[in-house]
Amino acid sequence: MKSLLLRLFLVVALGAAASLAAAWWYVTRPLPLARPVVDFTVQRGFTMREAAAAIANAGVDVNPRVLYWIARLTGKADRILAGSYEVHAGITPWLLILKLSSGDVSQAELRLVEGWNFRQVRAALEANPDLIQDAAGLSEAEILQRIGATESHPEGLFFPDTYLFDKQSSALALLARTYRAMHERLAQAWETRNPDLPLASPYEALILASIVEKETGRAEDRALIASVFVNRLRNGMRLQTDPAVIYGQGSAFDGNLRKRDLESDHAYNTYTRAGLPPTPIAMPGLDALLAAVRPPTTDYLYFVSRGDGTSEFSTNLNDHNKAVSQYQRRTGS
């Protein structure tokens, strides 16, 4: 009797061991993929059964029922996280379960460029295939309300940078990140401002920084250009900055700024109106923000492009007119 029981025990033990070995072999063997890289999305609210089906349908050669039971038996079935995932050759059922339960989602990126306006920002968001387009069709006021902005105009409120995000993230959530990033950079810059700066608020600094950003792409000229505008504000002179006039024309601008455009009054025409325009005209980068709040002390009141991206600075109108003649009139500008 004892011999029979011992034999039965050995058979059961060997069977269990064989089953465990088979199970271990299955969960640790690489799964065939339909492509070198397979990506899939686990929607919010998906159960493990639904996630397993989505994985199989995307091109991972795994039995959805088996994958579900692996997750169930290991206590992972209720811990899967929504998001977009990416798997490569060598992925095993167990690694797949760990990926789902740890939220190891795949990422995409969005680049916002210094000097872009909000129209260009929206276009970049809407052209990105990895974003959920929950901002499409919303008015500017609705977008600002949804991201928690307190301003009434969106221009210049978003920090230009390259942003990584989980695929199938909300466009509004990403925009809110860029909004917070600008507020953080602006607040930090404002704390370091020159004590005699003729700007009343961080928002005015943002406006000036946006003008500096559009006036030059040369790092070495930003601070001097900021000093020109700060000197003009102190002296009560009009800023006379072409990019602001162009911005005020919107889509009507045809690429050619004429004398009549400089004489046509509107809120952004800094030739006809004193002080800063009512809003930023673009997204300034960090260098432009710092230039606007910490310009060097100079006597410059004028500058003109040399035609090679750099600028010629002058302290008086006579020298400025000579520079204009030298650098622009000879080229027909």
Structure description:
The protein has 333 residues and is mostly helical. Helices cover 48% and strands 10% of the residues. It contains 13 helices and 8 strands. Strand 7 and strand 8 (311-314) form a beta hairpin. The protein starts with a helix and ends in a 6-residue tail after the last helix.
Counting H and I runs of at least 4 residues, what is the number of helices? 13
Mean pLDDT: 89
Specify the helix fraction band: 40-55%
Q: Which residues form runs of ≥5 with pLDDT under 50? A: 9-20
What's the main sheet like? 2 strands, antiparallel
Number of strands: 8
* Biggest sheet: strand arrangement: 1-2
Structural category: mainly alpha
Alpha carbon gyration radius: 31 Å
H and E order = HEHHEHEHEHEEHHHHHHEEH
The geometry reads as: elongated
Distance between the termini: 109 Å
Labels describing this entry:
333 residues; two-stranded antiparallel sheet; 13 helices; single chain; mainly alpha
